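Intended use. Records like the one below are meant for learning the mapping from a protein sequence to its folded structure. Do not use them to infer anything beyond what is encoded.
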Amino acid sequence: MSEAVTAGGIPAGEKTFLGHPRGLYILFFTEMWERFSYYGMRGLLILYLTQHFLFSDARSAVMYGAYTALVYVMTIIGGSLADRYLGQRKAVTYGAILLVMGHGLMAFEGDGSKELLTYQGQDYQITLEGRGGDAPQVIVSDSGRSYVSFNEGATQMLIEDPGAVGLPASIPTDSYTTRVEQEELYVNILYLALALIIAGVGFLKANISTIVGSLYGLGDTRRDSGFTIFYMGINLGSLLSSLTVGIIGIVWGWKWGFGLAGIGMLAGLLTFLVFQPWLEGRADPPSLEKLKEKVFGPINVEWACYLAGVGIIIFAMLTVMNSHLIPQWFVGMLGVLVFLFLVAYAVTKLAGIERDRMLAAIYFILAQIPFWALFEQAGSSLTLFTARFVDRTMFGVTVPTPVFQFLNAGYIVLFAPIFAWMWIALAKNKLEPSAPVKFAFGVFLAGLGFLSLVGGIGASGVGLTAVYFIFLIYWIHTMGELMVSPVGLSQVTKLAPARAVGMSMGAWFLYSGLSNYLAGVIAQATGAETIGGQLTDVAAAKAGYAEVYTNVAYIAMGIGVVMLLISPIIKKLMHLDVVSAEDDPQPASVAAH
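Structure written out for the chain above:
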C-alpha cells in the first residue's frame, strides 16, 4: 500500500505545521527539554567536580570525558533494542524516566569534600568562598580564617591575615602536605546519578533522531531542513539552561541548579507522553507479539529490555568511578572493532548501491571524530579556561562561567534557520556544497577556533584574556557544528538501509562518545596543579593551555584539508542521482507508515 506524494516527495494530505510534519514539533520540544537538563548540568559539572568534590583537574577531565563518552556509546544499545523490540516510542519514554531520576539525584550534594593542609603537625582547611572562577581561596583554623594566594611559580603560599589563623605570612609550598577527605555517600550518589543519565540518554537520544528521520521519505526535499529545525530545538534548550541553570547553580548553590535541570527533564517526559499521537504510529514497536514473549520466568522481551537498562546503569557507574584507570588503548581498540564490524556488515550483508551508501554513511560516522574531540572542550577544559583566565566582566557585571555555554546555543538559534534556508536556496540553484565538503569545512573550523583563542592568549600576555575571544571561538565552532551535526544526522538516516538505521544512528552516537573520551584526554593534558579547587601556578597553567590548543588546532585543520580532497570519492559513493527500488517502490509514491 502506498500514498500519493506531491512534488519533492511530500505525502499528499499530510498533517503539517509550518510546512513540516507536526510530529517534528513534539520531538522538537521533547528534545529541547532533554537538552535543557543535559546542557544545564553539563555547564556546572566540571566546576562541580573540581570545586565541590575537589577532584584534580586531570581526574575531573577524564571522568567528564568518560561520562560524556558513555552518554553516546550507550545509544548503540538503546538504538538496537528499539529497532528490534521496543520501538522508538517506548525506548524514548523509558530513557526520559531514567533521566528524570538521574537529574533529580544530582541535587543531593552533601557538604562537599574538604582539602586539609598539614603544617607543623597542625591541620588547616583550604576552601573556596563561593563557586565559580571568582571564588577566592580561604584557609581556616580553629582561631579564624584568611584569604590565601600563591606567588609566581607557586613556591610560597601567601596568607593575607596571618594573625587570624596563627600562621606566618608566607609558607614554602614544600613545607606542608595536603589531603582531600570526601563524603563517600554523596560521591557514590554522584556516580549513580551520572550512570542514570548515561542510560537515559542511551535509550532516548539515538531513537528520537531516528523518529525524525522516519517523518520524511528518502526523496523528501524537506529532510535536511527538518533536521536543522530539530537541531535548533536542541540548542534552544541549551540556550535556556545556560541562562538559568548555570546562573542559579553558581549564585544560589549547586543543588538548586541541578534541581532545575531535573524539572526541565520532567517537562520533556510529560511533553512526549501527552503528544505521542502526533507521531501517527511511526515509533511503535515492530511487533507487539514479540514484546510479550517470555524470556525467562515471568520476564517477557519488553521487561528484558528494561533490565538491560539496569545493566547499563551498573556498568556506567563502575566505569565512571574508575575512569582514571581505563587505558586509552582500550578505547581506541573499541573504535577499531566497531569500525571493522560496520565495514563487514556493509560488505557481507549489502550489495551494489546499498553497499556504497552504507560505506558513505560509515565515512560520516567516522569523520565527526576530530570535530567533536575539539568542540567538546567547551564543557571541560574551555570551561576551566574561561573561569580562570578570561576577563568575564561585561557592562560592570562579572558573568558566571557556565553562562558562556549559551553562546553556542544562541548562535545555533540565530544561524540554524539561516543555514536551513541557505541549503534549500543553494540546492534550487544547484550550488549547494555536498555533505562531504560541509564536513571538511566543519572540521577545519574546529581547529581554526582554537587557533583564534591562542591568538587571544598571546595578546593578553600575563593578564586575563579578553572575553570577546570566547565569543569568537564559540562562533567559529558553531559555524562548524552547523556543517557537521545536522548534516551528519540527516545523511546517516538517509544513506543507511532501513533495516540498519537504528544501528547506524547508534554507531553515530558511539563515535560521538569516543570523540568525547578523546576530548577528555585532550582536556587532561591541560590539567594544572590546584589546591582547594583553584590554581597554584597561574602562568604555567596558562602556557600549558596555549601549547595544547595550538597543537590540536593545527592537527584538526590538516585533517579538514585531507577530507576536502577526498570529498569527491565520498560523494560518488552516496549515489545522489539514483533512487533504488527499496528506497522508493514507485516514482510517485512513498511507502505508507
